[in-house]
User: Fold this.
Amino acid sequence: MSISVQQMADRVAELMEARLRVKGESLSGKLQRGRKLLPRRVQDAARFLAEASEQAKMPKLLVQIDPERTAEAYDTCVRYLKPLGVGARRRAWFLGTVTSAATIIVVTAAMVLGVLMWRGFL
Assistant:
């Protein structure tokens, strides 16, 4: 159990470094530096995994670790941090650009209509 929890924490730390470009010695160090880059549920899962890996180093505390919750936290972190493929990354960029442009157009149109109504042209 100790080796697998430590391996899970190391894998999540590697993924954080690869995907978020966060430096640090361990998962808890990388979590402190990159916590604003992660959603709340992933932060909580990574924090739990870091605490479990610290507990796993001590044999008496190893018994207290919930393996089911540890596996769930690991899955949550890996699912979020798993690298995207090239096609998915391009699709996400395209959708982000289109959404930004549409928002700018709607806000500008609303402001123009507001000014026209305020000035009495409509």
Q: What stands out?
A: The chain has a mean pLDDT of 88. The helical segments are 2-20, 27-34, 40-56, 59-62, 67-81, 86-119. The CA atoms of residues 20 and 37 lie 7 Å apart.
